[in-house]
Amino acid sequence: MSRTVYVNGKYLPEEEAMISVFDRGFLMADGVYEVTTVLDGKLIDFDGHAARLERSLGELDMAAPCDRATLLAIHRELVARNAVTEGLVYLQVTRGAADRDFAYPEGVAPSLVMFTQAKSLIDSKAAKTGMKVISVPDIRWARRDIKTVQLLAPSMAKMAAKAAGADDAWLVEDGQVTEGSSNNAYIVTADGTLVTRDLSNRILHGITRAAVLRFAREAGIKVEERAFTIEEAKVAREAFITSASTFVMPVVEIDGARLGDGAPGPVATRLREIYIEESRKAAV
Ligand code: PLP
User: Fold this and answer.
1) Predicted pLDDT of residue 32
2) pLDDT tens digits, 209-262
3) 148 φ/ψ angles, rounded to the nearest 5 degrees
4) Half-sphere exposure (CA, 13 Å, Cβ side) for 29?
5) At residue 117, what are phi and psi to the nearest 5 degrees?
6) CA 251/CA 267 separation, integer angstroms
7) Where are the membrane-spanning stretches (predicted)?
8) Does the CB atom of residue 208 touch ligand 1 within 6 A?
9) pLDDT of residue 40
10) Domain segments of the chain: what residues?
11) Residue nearest (by alpha carbon) to ligand 1 atom 1
12) Are the CB atoms for 269 and 250 separated by under 8 Å?
């Protein structure tokens, strides 16, 4: 069955949804995006995603296509029209269509495209067995705090992981892990401290990261926001990643080194449970 997608004010069958070949998102990756999770037909952390979108747009001097309330209404309408109970809403704003030029065009309306992906997220094999990651150099640009659609570097990292028989890649810059290809990266040290990279323009400020760190602190876990190396990660007690679509996902192998007994650790498992439970309660 064809999905209903949203394009610039219209709800259309996906086959009829069109964007100009002159759209700057297509020509120059001049666009930003958000992915919001749907559980029980409701949106997880909508306000967090909307706030990050507003920040991304502001950093790029890009006009907002509509206000936050309208955005929420479109999210809900798409979820309802596509009868999504579990999955994602993808949202993309681009600077719009204009003659190709490096300078930003003036007076051009931004494009807004949104679609849903129905997907089983809670019942995940990786959550039970854990993921294997490899490290690769972080070759991305220096404004990773802006959630732009230029995703070729993370795609290449993901392909390197696949080629190595792993599930994902952790990105390394100046000898230290920044984040995963499409997620934030964490380790639990021998004394039980949860360590994840501090916020800066070197990483995306994950909405799931913010929630998970809050839940970890509330659960009495010591949290350190600082850089760590792959060497430190390889001898960690546990590791995991977070993102909107994976929640908290345990990592059991890094560059071939098995962590602990090779099974998902208790901190990752507990934080996954808390995150899912609390997110469900707060969903809108
Ligand atoms: N880091 C990167 C590079 C990402 O692409 C993502 C998600 O797409 C994240 C972190 C996790 O962010 P969030 O928790 O908001 O999904």
Assistant:
1) 98
2) 999 999 999 999 999 999 999 999 999 999 999 999 999 999 999 999 999 999
3) -90, 165
4) 9
5) -135, 115
6) 12
7) none
8) yes
9) 97
10) 4-118, 125-282
11) 183
12) yes
pTM of the model: 0.97
Both tokens assigned to 122: 């809670």
Looking at residues 31-41, what average pLDDT do you find? 98
Q: Is there an atom of ligand 1 within 6 Å of 48 CB?
A: no
Q: Quote the pLDDT of residue 173.
A: 98
Q: Is residue 48 within a helix (H) or strand (E), and if so which, with residue range?
A: helix 46-59
What would the pLDDT profile of 58-81 be if each residue is shown by its tens digit?
999 999 999 999 999 999 999 999
Grouping H, G, I as helix, E, B as strand and the rest as coil, residue 222 is coil
Confidence category of residue 176, pLDDT binned at 50, 70, 90: very high
Distance CA 207, CA 147 (A): 12
Architecture of domain 4-118: 2-Layer Sandwich (3.30)
Q: Is 159 helix (H, G, I), strand (E, B) or coil?
A: helix
CA distance 136 to 156: 10
CB atoms within 10 A of CB 38: 25
222 is catalytic: no
Residue/partner pairs of 44-49 with CB below 8 Å, 24 or more apart: 44/244, 44/279, 44/280, 44/282, 44/283, 45/207, 45/208, 45/211, 45/244, 45/279, 45/282, 46/72, 46/75, 46/284, 48/207, 48/210, 48/211, 49/91, 49/207, 49/244
Q: Average pLDDT, whole number, for the chain?
A: 97
Domain spanning 125-282 has what CATH number? 3.20.10.10
| Fold: same for 4-118 and 125-282 | no
Using an 8 Å Cβ cutoff, are 14 and 224 in contact? no
| Pairing label, strands 194-196, 184-188 | antiparallel
CA of 206 to the centre of ligand 1 (A): 5
Write the Ramachandran bin of 226: left for phi over 0, alpha for psi from -120 to 50, otherwise beta.
Answer: beta
> Where do we find the tokens 């759209």?
23
The structure tokens listed for 92 are 């993309």
